[in-house]
Amino acid sequence: MFPEDFAWGASTAAYQIEGGWDADGKGESIWDAFCHRDDSAVFERHTGDVSCNSYQLWEEDLRCIEELGLTHYRLSLSWSRLLPDGTTGHVNQQGVRYYNQLLDGLLARGVTAMVTLCHFDLPQALQDRGGWQSPDTPALFDAYARFCFGAFGDRVRLWITLNEPHVCAKLGHENGLHAPGVRGAGVAAYRAGHHMLRAHALAWHSYDAGWRRRQGGLVSMAINSDWAEPVDPDSAEDAAAAERYLAFSLGWFAWPLFVSGDYPEVMRAAVDARLPRFSEDQPAVLGTADFFALNYYTSRKVRSVVGGGGDGEAPSMKADLGAEGVVDPAWPLCGVPWLAVAPQGLRQLLKYIKATFNHPAVYVTENGFAQTGALLMDDGDRAAFYRETVGEVAKAIEEDGVDVRGYFAWSLLDNFEWADGYSTRFGLFHVDFSDDERARTMYRSGREYAAIISEHRSRSRAHRELTSS
Predict the structure, then answer these.
(1) Which of 75, 105, 174, 240 has minimal Cβ neighbours within 10 Å of its Cβ?
(2) Residue of 18, 28, 366, 448 with catalytic role
(3) Which residue of the set 18, 28, 164, 229 is catalytic?
């Protein structure tokens, strides 16, 4: 039985759906610049220049949200649409107007907004000043966050500071596959992740001191992780490798927030001097998450890997990890090579979070199933995936005692999927990218998710009425 106030949501991100990349005074983001490069690494040089055109079609998005029966909607704000040069010295009022319309529209429909401040799309003006490699960026993020708390916080109760810092750090600063395209193996990602944690902590403390009492909101960071278990359960080496795998993904950001105020010891031991240290002169990181925001997509079987990172060899995150994650052949793939379908892994990861991070309240802020190639509007496999996955979340609540407060499907709409461009589709609604109107049509999986929401909300209401009579 899901709680009556359980958050049934879907998620999106500004760069992935809005388009209007240079409209009405918006500044350039690192993803604008990355996609427009002559050597763009994005599939077939796709861009988010128009995408779903949600900047103009936001009322259509609200229609889709209503049609699904969502209670919550996770969106992100475009930092460079609001503050074109990344600083509060220049506020773009057209951007403020856009988000005011969207938040007011959600409120009028009884839908609770969960708002992400930065979903990968750092302003390019700040990247030109060093981006997440610069120790100055956390303070600039804090100023941006304080601006957003003041402008929109009267209608927002759930805030996410940064989305998937692990992905932003590793793919954006280790191997350069994502914006800003930095290749700084073994060094740059750890520095970027450190400054993102500092930025989050500053913003959390600002909200706690200046807005929490009158707005009553909660603030966290969205952390992504696979579930990991040893290839050979009887192998001590594989078991240790699985723990390292979780430490270098989930623990990298969750350990400082929930456990110790510092990185996991296994990371400290492996990375040594390349892993930055938190200063006692800076606001504390420990305790700066009011709930655990989890993005989960897949699981891995993990084995120990010996070698790499020796004397005279260039450092890398792969060598630091000393572990390899592989797909269990029993897990079907859904469109993209990295995404093995493993709903049971979500339950295991939720149990691990409860045991490891002091039983926090958890929101599953992203979870989804991809389509590639020939699209199926009658996407039965994805529809079945959502029913099975929600069932695993229910088991985590009822049988394992995990305090799960909400589930957000990725994604409301087919959209620009980063390096995969438009070749990969996660939407509950199909978007016709060949149509100037960007027509939205619900997939079968959308209808299934809507039915799941309706069923569970009806059961919760009936249970309340029965117990209160």
Answers:
(1) 240
(2) 366
(3) 164
